[in-house]
Amino acid sequence: GRATQSLLAIEFNHPRAVDLHIVASICRAYVSDTRPLESVCAGVVRTALQLPVQNDATVDESTALPQIDKVDAASALGLAAQIGPWTNLRPHRLLAVVGCIHL
Predict the structure, then answer these.
(1) What's the angle, vertex CA 93, arms to CA 90 and CA 99, rounded to 5?
(2) Residue 82 phi/psi, 5° resolution?
(3) What is the H or E stretch that residue 75 is in?
(4) Cα angle at 90 between 69 and 72, to 5 degrees?
(5) This prediction's pTM
(6) 10 Å Cβ neighbour count for 55?
(7) Residue 88 to residue 40: CA distance in whole angstroms
(8) Cβ distance 80 to 45 under 8 Å?
(9) How far apart are CA 64 and CA 51, in angstroms?
(10) What pLDDT score does 81 carry?
């Protein structure tokens, strides 16, 4: 868990420094309790998908999303699916990204 948390912290502070597909795979293979990772995972996913840091429920849905690389989006979504940071990140914003980039 600590190694995964360290990788997520590196990615949060230095976007695109760590391959999120690898982090999700490590998490799937070696981490049984993902609760300690939820907060940092939410931050990493927000950064990767260029989502605002503010509470997702207050974001105007009509606001255009920035251009996001499909590979980056897929890895961020895979990480979110693996860790499940749903208390820190609202799934409807992730769905908006998926629709916007036609994933």
Answers:
(1) 145
(2) -75, -45
(3) helix 70-83
(4) 15
(5) 0.83
(6) 9
(7) 9
(8) yes
(9) 11
(10) 94
